[in-house]
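ok so i was messing around last nite and threw this chain in just to see what happens. nothing serious, just curious
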Amino acid sequence: MMETVSFTRMIDGTSEEYAFLEKLEHEYVAKLPDRIMAAMQGLENSLSGYRVSRLEHSLQSATRAHRDNRPVDYVVAALIHDIGDELAPYSHSEMAASILRPFVDEQLHWIIKYHGVFQAYYYGEQMGIDRNIRDRFKDHPHFDESVVFCEKYDQNCFDPDYESMPLSFFEPMVREVFTRKPIFGETSAV
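result:
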């Protein structure tokens, strides 16, 4: 039984080796929800200075979306919208959107991808940046929903007195979203 491939350049791989790798990839991808849950738990000890942890911020976001009867995809997107803070502090929105992209529709992907830009509306003036930078997207079909996301599920989710649901509550939703067959569009890699 094969344990590793023999090639050192992809062009030299055989059909059998690529079938072997595909099997291993399927097994690895099946554990994506576990890795996402672990990364979310890691946000408990992330960026400091706020009155709540990044994990609690994310839980508040997802809880609010759930309590507003948003679809499961939306709730999961709200949960992981800042998952990129650890490894991509200057492009965390894009990282979260990239994780979601194969599993959610284009609108939700876009909202998460640009939520960092839209979020500047609430703090830009205090930081010396243009709070209206989001206006460059004013004519985009997802502009209004992005405003809603930041208003209802992001900028207001730093409340130490808010009773959010625990991470375990969202685990079945995370598993539902990240175990479905990926949606591959024209911009995705195969």
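not much to say yet. The chain is about 55% helix and 0% strand.
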